[in-house]
Amino acid sequence: MKKLAVYCGASLGKDSAVVTATKKLGQYLAMNHIDLVYGGGRVGLMGILANQVLDLGGNVYGIIPNQLADRGAALERLTDLTIVENMSVRKQKMLDLSDGCLALPGGPGTLEEIIEAFSWARLGNNNNPCVFYNIDGYYDELKKMFDTMTAHGYLTKEDRQKLLFSDSLEVIFDFMNNYIPPKIRKY
Ligand code: AMP
After folding, report:
1. Helix (H, G, I), strand (E, B) or coil at 187
2. What is the mean pLDDT of residues 85-105?
3. Whose CA is nearest to atom 7 of ligand 1?
4. Which of 125, 149, 156, 161 has its CA 20 to 30 A from that of 69?
5. Is ligand 1 within 6 A of the CB of residue 37?
6. Nearest protein Cα to ligand 1, atom 8
7. What are 116-129's pLDDT values in tens digits?
8. Options 3.40.50.450, 3.40.1280.10, 3.40.50.300, 3.40.1830.10; CATH of 3-177
9. Rounded distance, CA 111 to CA 166, Å?
């Protein structure tokens, strides 16, 4: 694992344990020389994570659509900030630049990005592992939904095993380092 794409809230949220865990992730990345690839934002959990990695001497690559950059959303002190034309280009670029996808707690933007990445893994368009960092059980209901999908026959058991929900960084990076992409879907 050399570069990790992280999707997370552009808001801070209400749970201080999430902010603490976000800083812990930043520390883990910097200490293990894993570069951060993220949406380039300066606010919310995005800003907390990027600043933590930078403060501890790590590298942070931000990819932000011009629409958001024009509104002053970007963190200026990044190792590198790439401004792209839209969200679709940003999402593709984040996948191209990284070796894994991790979602911290967040809102619709976070969900949309990590679920697209997982959906593309099943189509053969994304070889990176996808994981939800399930801090304080934030993603418990979503995990249940994926189990329901599997029980109802919309997701195979094999593919369900390619998606991890965990609150342990050790378990998360072990899963990522041993990940084998799912077989490409057949119809
Ligand atoms: P949300 O989870 O709805 O707060 O959205 C967060 C996700 O949407 C991030 O992973 C970003 O890719 C994108 N996003 C939303 N707001 C911003 C922002 N102000 N700056 C950069 N990216 C943002």
Report:
1. coil
2. 97
3. 109
4. 125
5. no
6. 109
7. 999 999 999 999 99
8. 3.40.50.450
9. 16
Sequence ranges of the domains in the chain: 3-177
CB 100 within 8 A of CB 129: yes
Q: Where does the pLDDT of residue 185 fall: very low under 50, low under 70, confident under 90, or very high at 90 and above? A: confident
What's the chain's average pLDDT?
97
| DSSP per-residue letters across 48-91 | HHHHHHHHTT--EEEEEEHHHHHTT-B-TT-SEEEEESSHHHHH
Q: Which amino acid is at 52?
A: Q
Q: Is 52 left (phi over 0), alpha (psi -120 to 50) or beta?
A: alpha
Record the pTM. 0.96
Cβ–ligand 1 distance for 64 under 6 Å, the answer yes
Q: Is the CB–ligand 1 distance for residue 169 below 6 Å?
A: no
Q: Is the pLDDT of residue 97 over 90?
A: yes
Give the per-residue pLDDT at 167.
97
Distance 183 CA to ligand 1 centre (A): 30
User: Which residue in the block uniquely carries the two structure tokens 């990790």?
Assistant: 4
Nearest to 163 by CA among 98, 115, 92, 91: 115
